[in-house]
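To whoever is on call:

I kicked off a structure prediction for a single chain this morning and the downstream step that reads the tokens threw a length-mismatch warning. I double-checked the sequence; it's 379 residues and nothing unusual in it as far as I can see. Pasting both halves so you can look.
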Amino acid sequence: MSMSSPPSEALMGGKKKARVLEGEDARLLCSDALTEVFNRLPARTLASCRMVCKSWMSLLSDLHFVHEHLNRGQQKLLLFANDRVNDRSLATVLADASGYMYQLSRPSASRSLFVHNSCNGLLCLGDSRGAVELLNPTTGESLVLPTPEYTAGSSQFSSSNWHSLGFCASTKEHKVAHFYPGDLGSLKACCEIFTIGGRAWRQIGSLDGTPMDRGMHVNGTVYYLTKIRYVASSRINCLNLESEKFDVLMLPPRKTYGRHCSLSELQGRLCLLVVDGTLEGLPRTMDILMLDNDDKRSWTHRYHISLPLLMQSCYFTPKHAVSHDGKIWVQLFARSLYCYDPNSNSDELEIACPESEFPFSTHTFVESIVPLRQHYFIK
């Protein structure tokens, strides 16, 4: 009986190499399919998926994936309130089918917590001690920043407590800009920046006039309405987060600004909300003007909205506006939220929900898995 000869070493080696390559291809295919599945899941679900295994944690922390998923996210409206009776802070995603609510922890030494602004799903928080903290309520991760020297012991409404979180797309860096008054008698405001992942605040210069609000971040630039002493200025100061240089943008020419205007962001563009009208019972209106994203100098009038009959003796400034589900949501007072539908036949701004039990602030919000874990920063 003849016996077959054993296969050669070269043949065996070739088969082993082929099986290894097939295994690598299968893993790559499996990884691609898994990535596609993850891309379709909401951020809240992905935050839980991170805890399954190291490979999932690695994939869901990948820089490219985090930002690709973020770009697919839907802009929502977040309401923030302090419930002093039950000693808690709440952040409610209003424009969510489930009305999802996050309960935020407060520093033990502080009775008050407030939101400066939101960017990429991160909340920039402050408290009565002047502390600054970044929080991703979706993942529960947080990062406490060094306390700026000029905010220690200040309140939410202090002129030395204006902070704004922004994102520089070219460098993939999150930065917090902080404006504070210059020397006594000076008409300038100084500015310092903290880059997330850095160690200290950096002084970058000063600008003419005092910011009237905490700033509005749009596409890598922070915009501030300013005033000189107690008089509103006709200019908007701009801070480019990439170059960290200042620029000036003039308000669009109008017959009047009604003494009440504020900055907001709609559809990825800087907007100016202007309230006109008098106290003698004449109708009050709000115009929304949008800045052209190409030349950053031209303004387009987009909406003219009739305001509801409110207390005629009360001056007010629209606090924020956000676009969601084809509608525009506007906060006029501390406890009131209104809604305008551009597709309806009415130009009226109507009450969107019953008056809140607590005063609240409104913010644009996208649920995300942008990480804030120790030793990990977006670079």
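Update from on-call: the warning came from a stale cache, not from the record. Cleared it. Sanity check on the structure: The CA atoms of residues 260 and 315 lie 8 Å apart.
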